[in-house]
Amino acid sequence: xxxxxxxxxxxxxxxxxxxxxxxxxxxxxxxxxxxxxxxxxxxxxxxxxxxxxxxxxxxxxxxxxxxxxxxxxxxxxxxxxxxxxxxxxxxxxxxxxxxxxxxxxxxxxxxxxxxxxxxxxxxxxxxxxxxxxxxxxxxxxxxxxxxxxxxxxxxxxxxxxxxxxxxxxxxxxxxxxxxxxxxxxxxxxxxxxxxxxxxxxxxxxxxxxxxxxxxxxxxxxxxxxxxxxxxxxxxxxxxxxxxxxxxxxxxxxxxxxxxxxxxxxxxxxxxxxxxxxxxxxxxxxxxxxxxxxxxxxxxxxxxxxxxxxxxxxxxx
Amino acid sequence: xxxxxxxxxxxxxxxxxxxxxxxxxxxxxxxxxxxxxxxxxxxxxxxxxxxxxxxxxxxxxxxxxxxxxxxxxxxxxxxxxxxxxxxxxxxxxxxxxxxxxxxxxxxxxxxxxxxxxxxxxxxxxxxxxxxxxxxxxxxxxxxxxxxxxxxxxxxxxxxxxxxxxxxxxxxxxxxxxxxxxxxxxxxxxxxxxxxxxxxxxxxxxxxxxxxxxxxxxxxxxxxxxxxxxxxxxxxxxxxxxxxxxxxxxxxxxxxxxxxxxxxxxxxxxxxxxxxxxxxxxxxxxxxxxxxxxxxxxxxxxxxxxxxxxxxxxxxx
Amino acid sequence: xxxxxxxxxxxxxxxxxxxxxxxxxxxxxxxxxxxxxxxxxxxxxxxxxxxxxxxxxxxxxxxxxxxxxxxxxxxxxxxxxxxxxxxxxxxxxxxxxxxxxxxxxxxxxxxxxxxxxxxxxxxxxxxxxxxxxxxxxxxxxxxxxxxxxxxxxxxxxxxxxxxxxxxxxxxxxxxxxxxxxxxxxxxxxxxxxxxxxxxxxxxxxxxxxxxxxxxxxxxxxxxxxxxxxxxxxxxxxxxxxxxxxxxxxxxxxxxxxxxxxxxxxxxxxxxxxxxxxxxxxxxxxxxxxxxxxxxxxxxxxxxxxxxxxxxxxxxx
Amino acid sequence: xxxxxxxxxxxxxxxxxxxxxxxxxxxxxxxxxxxxxxxxxxxxxxxxxxxxxxxxxxxxxxxxxxxxxxxxxxxxxxxxxxxxxxxxxxxxxxxxxxxxxxxxxxxxxxxxxxxxxxxxxxxxxxxxxxxxxxxxxxxxxxxxxxxxxxxxxxxxxxxxxxxxxxxxxxxxxxxxxxxxxxxxxxxxxxxxxxxxxxxxxxxxxxxxxxxxxxxxxxxxxxxxxxxxxxxxxxxxxxxxxxxxxxxxxxxxxxxxxxxxxxxxxxxxxxxxxxxxxxxxxxxxxxxxxxxxxxxxxxxxxxxxxxxxxxxxxxxx
Amino acid sequence: xxxxxxxxxxxxxxxxxxxxxxxxxxxxxxxxxxxxxxxxxxxxxxxxxxxxxxxxxxxxxxxxxxxxxxxxxxxxxxxxxxxxxxxxxxxxxxxxxxxxxxxxxxxxxxxxxxxxxxxxxxxxxxxxxxxxxxxxxxxxxxxxxxxxxxxxxxxxxxxxxxxxxxxxxxxxxxxxxxxxxxxxxxxxxxxxxxxxxxxxxxxxxxxxxxxxxxxxxxxxxxxxxxxxxxxxxxxxxxxxxxxxxxxxxxxxxxxxxxxxxxxxxxxxxxxxxxxxxxxxxxxxxxxxxxxxxxxxxxxxxxxxxxxxxxxxxxxx
Amino acid sequence: xxxxxxxxxxxxxxxxxxxxxxxxxxxxxxxxxxxxxxxxxxxxxxxxxxxxxxxxxxxxxxxxxxxxxxxxxxxxxxxxxxxxxxxxxxxxxxxxxxxxxxxxxxxxxxxxxxxxxxxxxxxxxxxxxxxxxxxxxxxxxxxxxxxxxxxxxxxxxxxxxxxxxxxxxxxxxxxxxxxxxxxxxxxxxxxxxxxxxxxxxxxxxxxxxxxxxxxxxxxxxxxxxxxxxxxxxxxxxxxxxxxxxxxxxxxxxxxxxxxxxxxxxxxxxxxxxxxxxxxxxxxxxxxxxxxxxxxxxxxxxxxxxxxxxxxxxxxx
Lengths: 316, 316, 316, 316, 316, 316
Hints:
Oligomer: homohexamer
Largest interface: A-F, 43 and 44 residues
């Protein structure tokens, strides 16, 4: 199969490929016949699929996290594509396909991300900030390199969080060149730690949801607490840097309505908020436009105030 | 002089009493003559005062935190009362007046407040919540019994915080009787701790302002961190009670716009928010109506959405 | 059948019980076969049900307000439970089931509610307020004891209005003990009359909807008019109490956006608003949490700003 | 004196004319000398005036509602004109000046307004609406022809309310011609009664303020009650016209935030709201532009969303 | 068949008439059978229709813009009427039906609209304004007389734009009589040009959608540019009238949130905005009430803040 | 005098320096003596000054745009510094001071700004965009290099607009390196033209105010028109680049409430908006923090949502 992947498939196309089952729901037609609704995914996106006249065996075979070989055709249902399954079987060892082939991943690999992070920490000169950052990197190293940055909207893929951090560090480095008054160490520390609370707010790397703690506290207050505890362990809790760093994390959503009880009140906190916005928006826009033809609009993007963006023709 | 105090004085009245200097500003008249603008206070309120033709000696004598004997008359200036000082001298040891006589205090004394707190803790049955509350009471005992609950608006007097807590505990006790599904221990713990972060957010008991930490983090995130650290010290950090208690503190302002990144998502958190509102509003209303004549309106109250309240005539 | 009732039923369960038909809609499957969609209810809740292959006889038999014996199984449809009817028959006299068995009722009976109301009126000392309240109770006695307080959200069951009033009176009694400045008679009168306009705004006790008058005027202005007319009948229209009482009713929703053209401008009006909120919210929360397992969240509650509430595990 | 009046006076001009004292405040200069601040008015506007070195006799002579002969010059003070009084004396009988000369009046006289009202009522065909309108006109005839429509912003002059009603009737008559589906009787009745509650909301015709009843209830709910009582007196309370008329009054501010608990839900209610807006805005704009030179902007107008309007040059 | 048209059809009625196909979507039933969903329309409205068991021939025959003879019955589907097609055939030349019979048209014909426009321009006296208006009428004459004023909500029918303009001119003429300070020429010019940008914002007269230019710029900025270019062509770009006219177009939506970067700052701009509102609202209300029975409410109207309007009974 | 300038002066300091008169107002003391209020400025800031006992000669000598030699002392007046003038004289030719010494200027000189602009245009590859940009630069070259970017808030100094453009171009260049999907030519063209409408919206380079055209249309619609006219002159009006460029200018304020009738709907439009925010905010923050001591807060900054920013101590 030479398809680009399900994220690029159009209505009317035939499909014949391996996909991962993300969710399964049983249904009954008005004629009383059972069917399965599956959400299938590969590394490029997701699609709703219908398996009509499903048997008890089908129900037992096709469960979440399984990989299947599926052929069918893509119809339109209520304005969205839907896959009608014509043939399906579970994957076999000889197929040589793996769950990790079916999840979206950052375009940069883990080693490269790790290296970029190390490089940034190496550039830092303020010992207090550097020690705190190092301690957190060490504590969360494993998860940090694989977690998504969010459950949806932007960087919602494997290693998304690290990818987001590394892109933000690159912007910060350039802004510091253009506006040398900026304190680069503060920016670096704020960028690396700003979303680390998500490692405890989100349940995991693949089928990501919110933990109870995440729902009741949220990643921002959880991270304020973590920095406080870490600063005590490192015996730097009296340093002003700790307070400023906590403030940067606390305020990085920019406004109370967006989850920051204090707005940015330190220059680098304001800049952290703007860099976060810039990278998150470009990540969403670039990926949506990549799936859009010149002269057309993307789908409406919830996290971009529900706007649909136009891809100009003249660039072709 | 048998006046009720400056908070009850009317335009046109003569004044002859001791007062505390809160602030002093130097000015020069258009004729080039120096004068002093003083903010004076006693236990019932504050007034702006003018000392015309002030000498260098006056400047040296009349400084903040000093007590003075002052006589003068109350004029109207831009719609607000202003004291024109006719005679003034510093207080002397033989006057037997003390700074504590000139600050507003809770209508219940420290011992009674302490007793009510102890009583509530004694009623608690959940050991985790009780231990955390006890530990905080011990840590902050001294400040807790003297701090105001706020710099202005409600309970903004000595022991105001403890007075607010004790009133809220009384409401909680009755609500628990009426709605026995409520978890009283959670309510008590939430009430006692909800504003404890203010002990670090506010600079002190008398001329209260915000600390840097208070401005950059605010009392709510500071308290989340404190509970986290305290729970570790008591080795109960894995208990669900800790998470729920942190959530109650985090959400007690009710809405993101009002400083709570999460709204109440636990029943007792919602009730804590409502009891807090109820007691704060009644404190403001009762004190404002106490200074208002029947058939008239109070001054506009900023923290009550800028409303002026009417005091009915028929109650006389 | 030992089920707790349809409000507690889970997907996958079999159902075999009596239920009341609330609504019926005819439909046709894509294969052209007729079916009926019924909304069924018992005293604990409602469910959508499907009767496939419905005959003309079925259509004639199964109409709103009829009681049926139904067996079937609960499926999931678009994330909500749906009952697939396997067998159904109309109830018969020998079944000894009655419409009143299938509507939700206040947990306190009419006589007890009546008694609590009488008790509160007896406590009142202000003759004007007492006479007005007595006259309204007499005028609306019958409906007052059976109407719901609303069509949905809180106290939306038989005798819900009286239940809401009686709970609010209990809170008011306690608050008056804790804050003796409050005028208890005003609070009692405001509480008893605040929602009485709903008796004309809502169409009835069971399948409640809005009257034309209710839609065009709303219960608040209707009640202002009623109090004015009643005061004339009792020849007390010049008393200030009447004005204050009208103001309390007018302002009890708290804000213009919520239907009160004037916000509370009298202390007891503000307290009435807060007690109303407190009781309405606790009614909603207690009933929703009662149907939720520890460690889980309730459904999103529209009238609680669309929040889902968590039921802690540690209370078990 | 050939001045157009104080509303048209410019900074730098000398003044020598009769004016009415609206308010007086005593003050003391920093040099200890007493002075009077007077708000003076004539039929075209108001001005702040200063009488320096005021004697006890001055204080006794120059009190509100007195007419004075004053000469002085207009200075600028904090961006607003201020009259420095050089000479002043009370008016004498021989001056032949009267309070009514110094208040702003509608540009149409009472008799003409009365005639237009009678004409409109005569056009009405629906007996219920006509009887209600007639009864109210009879009840309030005296005040209706002299009251202002508001304390400020639009039609805030003697006979302003009747002037506003008569202008709105003229618009309604034309709209009914252009859109014959409109029910003219409903529109006329709604227009005549829509602001009649202001006769009880405002304290009087000249130095107008809000009554207690006006502050606690507002003219809209007061008028709903009045219509209800009047309908009973006329024994038409069961007619649908009464309900629709009450709805029109209730909704004529258009939105809950603007004081209408129900938005317009009947076509003529919506049109009443729009006609009210149209006439109020044109009244404000025409009067403000009348005092503005071509090529310049009016002062900011609070009731026009704080906009300043431009008067084009090309129209000259 | 003597039906009034599909806009007046009720659930349960049989249909047998010619209709125009607006849209077609293919679907597959759960049993795997193909069907067609058609949106059909006549001059009075639209309806969803289902053609079950559709063949390949059906798909080829029934395409958008085709006229068909259809019989069937109207069912209810999710609360909205849906036509079940029992028999259908394409129209034939002998049927003598035309696309123009199936689109909604203004109640006034093109010639009459043209005449009214000419009349208004003839009344204008300001040469600059008159020349600009004439030039635009000439440029857009053809489209201006057939375009709708919008894709939905108000005047969304053939010649809707011209109908809207002509109605607004009639209101303006009357307002100018009542308030002679108004500059009639400015009003006329503003009214005629205010929505002319829609001729480029909307794709056409029948199945109207937004052009790319319409989506990226919107009709208001497009018209500002057009007036600027036209003024240059007429060599009047230095006249103040051009600036005022551009301002009127720019501000005619009234508020920034509604698409006007500047609010009205000239009297006639404010009046243009109000007349636009008045005519658009009356157009929507009259058409909705025309389809509503006395004593009932219209459907909720999105562009009227989602209100449903009541049609009084007493008018019958 | 070795002062850093008036922007850095503290209360209590003596002043002896040359300053430029920005505004003059005459006043009269309560004792009847004339005085002058002057707003004086140098290259670092402004101050209010009082010249007591001003003579007619003073009035004639000290007029706006004059340079004076002034000595005096800085007092506090209503919380803001005020200069009491002790001695003053007009500057003389021998003083060798010039108006241009007393206005704030960009930290980069005109030639350098010009060069940076030329460099960016040279990098552009799209001929349509490049030609349009070149044509505008040529048309406005003189003003573009000296105008401020705003009347207040950010880049409100001589050459402020060009400085803002050049800083934004530098950010765009770096972002294009990091996110190569971005169309650099579009970004460059959007940045250079985005605020060019201000050259017609603002009255001039020094005492800047809004033109009538600026008030009635605003710089955004004015620039849309200008681009349209320029595109016609260059005969590229049919190119899609023109539409996209107009959209970028139109949407660069981000939201309708902020003056953009369309939000950004093209990727580069969104990025233009973000770069504009980033540079404007950093300009404001850097300049405010430069005047603030470590450990203190800046004044509240209106254009930063009225926040006061903290300058950390640890950076010292």
